[in-house]
């Protein structure tokens, strides 16, 4: 055991690079789907599985990450994760048929799912609590900038080259951190070789989170009354209820649900879920508005959202430092007030709203969110004892996936229902038939943003109860933070 005088920035940089390329890849194919449909001669519902399957694999594997991080070294997990990601990328780039492309995306997702929880746990272990906000702020930069660049770069490449180029660009970027991980990465986390995996919990977790994610993701396109949607949501909810009760009985649960006894972790988790649901309103509804109603090209729509994401990324390190100094509450309340205001402003969109006006509101909204997500999440994790970090990060990442799927489906359903009602009213009022579709869809989008405003208000109300937690760490745990286990496996 060697004394660690300062955080191992070189090791963290390797993990950052791997996480960046994994998150960057998540949004890379969204704009490329039409080109893939043409190349393989498939329907939109089939092509959508490239996005849905990626999300499902993430939702299934992230809950298991708590066990894996406790059982195996961060070096072993990183090498396996990046190897899977690189293999999946190669499969996708060379796919002769759609099924191979889909399999490649799922293999990619298996590797990417482990990267975020792994990096968060290493960050929590490597930095003392008084410097953790700044560290997690830089982590937030990776979370925000990577998915923001994806659609913009994808739009440019697909417009000029084959969609396969997307994967050929990602492959070398994935191989570099893999090579560095093999030769340079040291272990920073501690393993419990005696911990066992409860296979029943893993099966219930897969059915629970997988069923909910698939059901809610499909509801937006297939409808809530579709038998498959209803069945998968029902199976998901029942499995998840059984899963929770089982975790409370086990001595070594797959996910330690008991960490919700820490009030600030429970509160931060609730705020993160609500903010994620509200945040997805802009991510889902804005492309529909600017591409379908405004007629803006996909690459221009990516550019419209890029400044907001870059501002959010630039603010992450700054909010991290402010969090270390002032705490989460001072940031979360004004940040959520901005989110509420800008979400309401989006509920007042018109056919004549200018490109610049939309971009400014979206950018301001991202600025507000940057003051909330990472500070609130870090505040909750700081409550936990060190042994619970893997469970806290796994629960947070899983709930964000579920909140995104549920929020998206909920808001799209509201938009569709309102659009249908508005179309009937416009037709009855004698509106020009050529204008009915756009006007009705605009009304649906505005109403969805109006509902999303109230969702954001719930998060703002919860933020009033945030307190700076006192982490219940033992002296032994405090010493572990500054030590590094140098075992190469």
Automatic annotation (TrEMBL):
Main subcellular location: membrane
InterPro entries, alphabetized: EmrB-like (IPR004638), MFS (IPR011701), MFS_dom (IPR020846), MFS_trans_sf (IPR036259)
GO cellular component terms listed in the entry, alphabetical order: plasma membrane
Pfam entry (one): MFS_1
Coiled-coil blocks: none
Transmembrane stretches, start-end: 12-37, 49-69, 76-103, 109-129, 136-157, 163-185, 197-216, 228-245, 265-290, 302-323, 330-349, 355-377, 398-417, 447-466
Domain Major facilitator superfamily (MFS) profile span(s) in chain numbering: 11-471
Record GO terms (molecular function): transmembrane transporter activity
Topology in membrane: Multi-pass membrane protein
Intracellular or extracellular location(s): Cell membrane
Keywords: Cell membrane, Membrane, Transmembrane, Transmembrane helix, Transport
Record family assignment: Belongs to the major facilitator superfamily. EmrB family.
Protein name: Multidrug efflux MFS transporter
Lineage: Bacteria, Bacillati, Bacillota, Bacilli, Bacillales
């Amino acid at each position: 055991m060697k004394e660690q005088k300062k955080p191992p920035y070189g090791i963290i940089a390797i993990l950052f690079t791997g996480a960046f390329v994994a998150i960057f890849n998540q949004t890379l194919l969204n704009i490329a789907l039409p080109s893939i449909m043409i190349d393989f001669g498939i329907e939109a519902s089939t092509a959508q599985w490239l996005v849905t399957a990626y999300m499902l694999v993430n939702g299934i594997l992230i809950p298991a990450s708590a066990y894996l991080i406790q059982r195996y070294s961060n070096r072993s997990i990183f090498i396996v994760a990046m190897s899977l990601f690189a293999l999946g990328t190669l499969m996708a780039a060379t796919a002769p048929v759609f099924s191979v492309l889909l399999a490649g995306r799922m293999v990619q997702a298996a590797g990417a799912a482990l990267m975020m929880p792994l990096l968060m746990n290493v960050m929590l272990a490597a930095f003392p609590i008084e410097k953790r906000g700044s560290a997690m702020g830089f982590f937030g930069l990776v979370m925000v900038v990577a998915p923001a660049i994806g659609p913009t770069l994808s739009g440019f490449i697909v417009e000029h080259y084959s969609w396969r180029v997307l994967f050929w660009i990602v492959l070398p970027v994935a191989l570099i951190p893999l090579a560095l991980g093999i030769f340079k990465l040291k272990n920073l986390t501690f393993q419990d070789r005696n911990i066992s995996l409860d296979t029943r919990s893993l099966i219930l977790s897969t059915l629970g989170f997988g069923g909910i994610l698939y059901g809610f993701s499909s509801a937006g396109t297939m409808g809530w009354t579709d038998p498959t949607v209803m069945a998968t949501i029902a199976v998901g909810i029942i499995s998840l209820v059984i899963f929770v009760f089982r975790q409370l009985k086990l001595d070594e649960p797959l996910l330690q649900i008991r960490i919700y006894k820490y009030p600030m972790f429970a509160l931060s988790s609730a705020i993160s879920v609500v903010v994620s649901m509200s945040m997805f309103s802009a991510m889902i509804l804005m492309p529909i508005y600017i591409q379908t109603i405004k007629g803006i090209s996909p690459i221009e729509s990516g550019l419209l959202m890029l400044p907001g994401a870059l501002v959010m990324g630039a603010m992450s390190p700054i909010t991290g430092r402010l969090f270390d100094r002032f705490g989460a509450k001072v940031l979360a309340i004004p940040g959520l007030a901005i989110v509420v205001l800008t979400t309401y402003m989006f509920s007042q969109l018109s056919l004549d709203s200018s490109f610049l006006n939309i971009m400014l509101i979206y950018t301001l909204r991202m600025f507000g969110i940057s003051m909330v997500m990472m500070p609130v999440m870090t505040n909750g994790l700081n409550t936990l004892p060190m042994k619970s970090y893997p469970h806290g990060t796994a629960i947070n990442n899983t709930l964000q996936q579920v909140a995104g799927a549920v929020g998206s489906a909920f808001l799209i359903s509201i938009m569709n229902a309102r659009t249908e009602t508005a179309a009937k009213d416009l037709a009855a009022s004698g509106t020009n038939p050529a204008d009915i579709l756009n006007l009705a869809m605009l009304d649906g989008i505005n109403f969805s943003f109006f509902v999303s405003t109230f969702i954001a208000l719930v998060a703002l109300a919860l933020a009033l109860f945030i307190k700076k937690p006192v982490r219940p760490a033992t002296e032994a745990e405090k010493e572990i933070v500054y030590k590094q286990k140098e075992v190469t496996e």
